[in-house]
Write a structure and sequence with these properties.
By secondary structure, the chain is mostly beta strands. Helix content is 12%, strand content 33%. The structure holds zinc ion.
Length: 295
């Protein structure tokens, strides 16, 4: 049985609570497990399942919570079910830490509109794996290190698949400085640029970012801008991945892409029963008025 660790619940805007979890390193098959997110108003429950069955997915965005009108603390836990045996286990319950101050909420709301509607382009992020099912092709458990390079099973990460399922997000990528030079061997210098995006999903160094024209970048560094200790924006340093590198074989299959900007359809149905203004909210966002706190 796997062990779920490190459940973190955060808010990057007033419309969502975002949770991220991990599993302890294992040689069990990741795909043998299905995850469910459960929510409660108290740490003792009662618990309600708010996600569909999640496969190889370690983040979830709950769009059914209304943080404007309610002083509720929402508690979450993750259930992992073994598909064959039906055995299951839970994470420790987690809840959101500090409530988001209004001022931070305004900035995040505006940033979100800016990137999704104006300056950002649709991209796909492959988060590099740092936990999960260990690669047995190249990982030497005795030496505790990878024993071949260019392993196609784990892309050198030591974890099967190398990357988590891609996540859709909007990124503003700045034009690349013209610094391409060939040396005497015909190699070109690494091409670097920078980019910006909103706070969710959190981007980490070594993640792979794919543009819609299939240009692929490796994230080298991430800096965050904060307002009252809430992350408002991420600034990324990117290095272009040469065409033909193994990262170009990472598949983008639309049915496998996590679209975290849109809440799970299940959430839409319960969302309308939570706050009466919620049903109209998408309209408010699309016409750009009112902002996030028209209470
Ligand atoms: Zn490997």
């Amino acid at each position: 049985m796997i062990t779920i660790t490190d459940l973190t619940v955060r808010s990057f805007d007033l419309d969502h609570l975002d949770m991220v979890w991990r599993i302890a390193d294992t040689y069990e098959e990741e795909l043998d497990y299905t995850f469910y997110v459960e929510r409660a108003g108290a740490p003792s429950g009662p618990w309600e399942t708010v996600s569909s069955g999640l496969k190889q997915q370690y983040l979830f965005r709950d769009g059914a919570v209304n943080q404007r009108k309610h002083n509720t603390t929402y508690y979450y836990r993750i259930k992992a079910v073994h598909n064959v045996s039906g055995e299951f286990t839970y994470s420790q319950p987690g809840h959101q830490g500090a409530k988001m101050p209004r001022e931070a909420a305004v900035m995040i709301y505006n940033e979100n509109i800016l990137f999704t509607k104006f300056t950002g382009m649709l991209c796909w992020l492959f988060p590099k794996k740092t936990f999960g099912q260990k690669c047995q092709v190249c990982y030497d458990p005795i030496l505790g290190r990878e024993n071949i390079s260019n392993c196609l099973t784990c892309f050198g990460s030591g974890y099967v698949g190398g990357y988590h399922r891609p996540v859709r997000l909007h990124v503003q990528i700045f034009p690349m400085a013209q610094q391409v030079q060939s040396d005497t061997f015909g190699n070109s210098e690494q091409q670097n640029t920078s980019a910006m995006c909103i706070a969710f999903p959190p981007v980490s160094p070594e993640d792979v970012l794919v543009e819609s024209d299939n240009t692929r970048w490796r994230v080298v560094r991430v800096e965050t801008s904060e307002r009252l200790r809430f992350t408002v924006r991420q600034t990324l340093s990117l290095a272009k991945i040469p065409i033909g590198d193994v990262e170009y074989s990472l598949p983008i299959e639309e049915e496998n892409v996590l679209n975290l900007a849109v809440a799970d359809p299940y959430n839409y149905s319960i969302r309308s029963s939570i706050g009466q203004d919620d049903a109209n909210h998408s309209q408010e966002v699309s016409d750009g008025h009112n902002g996030p706190f028209n209470t």
